[in-house]
Structure formats: C-alpha cells, structure tokens
Amino acid sequence: FFFGICFIMDGSTKEVANPRSGSVVSVADNETVIDSEEGEIQLGNPNIQRQKEDILYHLGLSNLGSDLALMFGDTRFVCMGGSAVRAEKFANKLATRLSISIPTGMGLTSVGKTERFSLFKIGPIISVNHGMGMPSMSILLHEITKLLFHAKARGVSFMRIGTSGGLGIPAGTVVATTEGVNGKLESCYEQIVLGKEVKHETLLDTDLAKLAVSLSNVAGKEPVPCVLGKTIGTNDFYEGQGRFDGAVVSYSAQDRIDWLQKAYDSGVRNIEMESTCFAAWCHRMKIPGMIICAVLLNRLEGDQVTATPEQLQQYSANAQEIALRVIEHKLAIEQ
C-alpha cells in the first residue's frame, strides 16, 4: 500500500475512489444501500426492514415494540461520549442551554435499558455513552443508526465529545478532528470480517471541524482553545499509545519519542481509542460526523495525567462548550 491509502487484495472487496480526497479505498463488494426518503438515514443491509421486528438488543428497544418515529423522528444530533455519567450531565446541560423546560418534579431519565449504554433524548438531540474503545463504540453505532433509520430521522449529524492525550498542544486544548488514523498512521479503520481483513477510509466532515474552530473564539463568549488535527485511534490505552506507565513495556524511550514525533509531524494532534471506528462509520454511512476532544496532557512531555479534578472538569467542559456552539449554530440556521 501507499501511505494513507488502503488496499485489500481479496475477491470480496472492490476499490472505490473517494470524490473528496481522490484516494482509493476497498469496501465490501456486496454492500448495498436501502432506499429511503431524501435525507433519511440509509442502511447497507437489505435484511433490515421497517415492517419486520428489529431488536436493538443493547439499547433495550425494538422498532415494533416502541414508536421510534414518535420518540426519535425529530433527531438532528447524536452526541456520544465514553461515560454514562457524562452523557447524562451533557443532556442536562443541553436542556439548560437550549431553554428546554423539564416539568416540575421530574428529571431526565434514560430511554431503554442501561446495562451497556445510557441514552437520553432532549429536544432534537440524543446524548448517549459509547463505552470505552472501538468494540463498544461499534455496537452503539450499529444500533443507534438502525434506531434512526426506523425513526425516519432526517439530516442527522453524529458527534463524539470526549477527552484524549494531546501531541504538541497544551492541556485543555480542544481538537476538532479532520480524520482518524490508526497506530501505523494510516487513514483507515481495520476489521476482520469472516476471517478476512477489511479496511474503511476514515475521513470526517471538514466543514463541521472548521466550524468548530471558528466558533471557539467569537465575540461575547469566552474563548476556548481549539485546533484542527488528525486523531490517532488505538486498540488499547497503554502499549498501543506508546506509554511508559503501563504494567509492561516492549519498546525503548527512543522508539516511543520517534513514533510520537512522527505522528505530530504528520498532523496528528491527539490520541484516543475511538476515532478510526467513528470516522469510518460516518464516512461509510454518509452521516456528517465530527470528533471534539479536549486533551488532558501533552504526550510529548509525559504519560501521567497530573491535572487536578477541577482542571479535568474544565478540560471536559471545553469540549462540551465547542459542541454546544456547533449545535446552537446549526439549529439557528434551520429556523
């Protein structure tokens, strides 16, 4: 392969040119698109039909057991973060920020079951946690996308809002991701499907990312440090991210700094554990997607998160503030 372009040499895939980037990516040859009304979520699985029961097992919902169109048909944004507690807090923050009143004596409650994910609906926005890492996020992405398909929601955008380790930028800075890259610094998400390797391109909506940066410093609002950058998505927190503070280490200090510096030089500004899965899904499903993550430390200076609880709370709030400004801006345009 060439740097940044993924090729797969097996008979189950086809090569497709991306009209925006000009790069070529291999996709499943039998991937199809379900016909939907203009602007509605489209699936790539003909086995999923609205008139047949589809159990969204990990969400505790089904298309025939609930009126998903009534519950979620007006959804415009799906905001995702790792923690269930953070998802609930963000939902309450949305209610306050968008002046959505909650009846006296009542509070926001999660929809469906909560063993794996906690989903909250406030106005035209879903706030839900995706757990930690790409396997957990992949489950949520499948089921939340099917939920929106059954709900006949239109014009939906996905947001991942969270925290990360930074590269060459100070703690508290928010990174608006332009594309996800893996640990090899390739712009693709790798899966093993039926024993074969399949890769998907990981571009995100650059207009949304640029909008996030432009809204970070506007008149009348507190400026929030925010930059564009690529985001590495790894399969684990320690060795996959080149840390020296895990229980084992299999590389030298020079190997570590060489990899981090190479990543920085290629445009990477932060590292987390979901970006390639999320970006590939949004690109594959043609859903506008953005990742807004605050950095907790500069990994070029160390591995330990030494910020105080108050500082960590502020860093997380920075990412949420950028996401809120994007939501407010987009909703205002539609009115």
From TrEMBL:
<feature type="domain" description="Nucleoside phosphorylase">
    <location>
        <begin position="77"/>
        <end position="328"/>
    </location>
</feature>
<dbReference type="GO" id="GO:0004850">
    <property type="term" value="F:uridine phosphorylase activity"/>
</dbReference>
<dbReference type="InterPro" id="IPR000845">
    <property type="entry name" value="Nucleoside_phosphorylase_d"/>
</dbReference>
<feature type="binding site">
    <location>
        <position position="243"/>
    </location>
    <ligand>
        <name>substrate</name>
    </ligand>
</feature>
<dbReference type="GO" id="GO:0006218">
    <property type="term" value="P:uridine catabolic process"/>
</dbReference>
<feature type="binding site">
    <location>
        <begin position="160"/>
        <end position="163"/>
    </location>
    <ligand>
        <name>phosphate</name>
    </ligand>
</feature>
<dbReference type="Pfam" id="PF01048">
    <property type="entry name" value="PNP_UDP_1"/>
</dbReference>
<feature type="binding site">
    <location>
        <position position="116"/>
    </location>
    <ligand>
        <name>phosphate</name>
    </ligand>
</feature>
<comment type="similarity">
    <text>Belongs to the PNP/UDP phosphorylase family.</text>
</comment>
<dbReference type="InterPro" id="IPR010059">
    <property type="entry name" value="Uridine_phosphorylase_euk"/>
</dbReference>
<dbReference type="InterPro" id="IPR035994">
    <property type="entry name" value="Nucleoside_phosphorylase_sf"/>
</dbReference>
<dbReference type="GO" id="GO:0005829">
    <property type="term" value="C:cytosol"/>
</dbReference>
<feature type="binding site">
    <location>
        <position position="241"/>
    </location>
    <ligand>
        <name>substrate</name>
    </ligand>
</feature>
<protein>
    <recommendedName>
        <fullName>Nucleoside phosphorylase domain-containing protein</fullName>
    </recommendedName>
</protein>
<dbReference type="GO" id="GO:0009166">
    <property type="term" value="P:nucleotide catabolic process"/>
</dbReference>
